[in-house]
Amino acid sequence: MSGQLFIISAPSGAGKSTILTAVGKRVSGLGYSISHTTRKPRGDERNGVDYHFVDDRTFTKMINEGAFVEWAKVYDNFYGTSSSNLQDQTSSGLDVLMDVDIQGGQNIKDRFPDSVLIFLLPPSLEELERRLRERGTDNEPVIRARMESAADDIKNCVWYDYIIVNDKLEKAIDEAQSIIVSKRCATARQLPESKKLFDI
Ligand code: ADP
Ligand code: 5GP
C-alpha cells in the first residue's frame, strides 16, 4: 500500500464526523474509508456516502468471505472496513481517513504499523452528553449506553499517537490538518521525490 492511513477514534458525539468532513474539504489527496454497518441510518446519513448500510445476514456473509480488514461489534451493531475499499484508495496514492472504534484502531495498527492513530477527546463528559443530545439523532437509551462506555473508551487515548481536544472546533480541525500535513513532509515520504530532483 502506498497511501498513509489516518485513524480517528473517539467516543460517539466527540466530533469525528464533523472534523473529518472539514479536513476532507481542506486537504487534497485524501480518501475516506466508508465502513459497512448493520446500524440503521440516522439523520440525513446516506447509503454509500456515510456508511454502506447492510443487514446482519450480508455482514455475516462478508465476515465469512474475509471481506473485512477489520470489523467489530460496537454498541450492539456491527461495523467493518472492507479490504477492497481500502486498497482501491491507498493503491491510487490517496491518504485515507478512517473513523473506527478502539478495537478497529488496535487491529489496523497491528496490521498496518505505519498507520497514524489520532484520538479525539471532548472537553468534558458533560459537554459530550450535551453534544449527543443536541445532535438529536439518538434516543435516550442509546445516549445512555454511549455515555456509559465513554469514560472507559477515553482511557485508550494513552496508546494513540496523537490526541486532539475538540473544544473549539476550528482549532481541532487545524490540529487534524497539521498532523496530516506533517506526516506528508516526513523524510521517508519526501525522499523518493527529492532524490529525483537532487543528487542526494
Ligand atoms: P461523532 O462523529 O464523533 O459521533 P459528530 O461529528 O456527529 O460526532 O458531532 C456530534 C455533535 O457535536 C454534532 O451535533 C456536532 O455539530 C457537534 N460538535 C462537533 N464539534 C463541536 C465543537 N467543537 N463544539 C460544539 N459542538 C460540536
Ligand atoms: P456511529 O454509530 O456513531 O456512526 O459509530 C459508532 C462507533 O463505530 C464509532 O466509535 C465509530 O468510530 C465506530 N466505527 C465506524 N465504522 C467502523 C469500522 O469500520 N470499524 C470499527 N471497528 N469501528 C467503526
UniProtKB/TrEMBL annotation:
GO terms for molecular function: ATP binding; GMP kinase activity. It catalyses: GMP + ATP = GDP + ADP. ATP binds at A10, P11, S12, G13, A14, G15, K16, S17. Its EC number is 2.7.4.8. InterPro entries: GK/Ca_channel_bsu, Guanylate_kin-like_dom, Guanylate_kinase, Guanylate_kinase_CS, P-loop_NTPase. It is an enzyme of class 2 (transferase). It is found in: Cytoplasm. One of its GO terms (cellular component) is cytosol. Gene3D superfamilies: Guanylate Kinase phosphate binding domain, P-loop containing nucleotide triphosphate hydrolases. Keywords: ATP-binding, Cytoplasm, Kinase, Nucleotide-binding, Transferase. Residues 3-181 form the Guanylate kinase-like domain. Belongs to the guanylate kinase family. Essential for recycling GMP and indirectly, cGMP. HAMAP family: Guanylate_kinase. NCBIfam families: guanyl_kin. This is Guanylate kinase. The lineage of its organism: Bacteria, Deltaproteobacteria, Candidatus Desulfacyla. The gene is gmk.
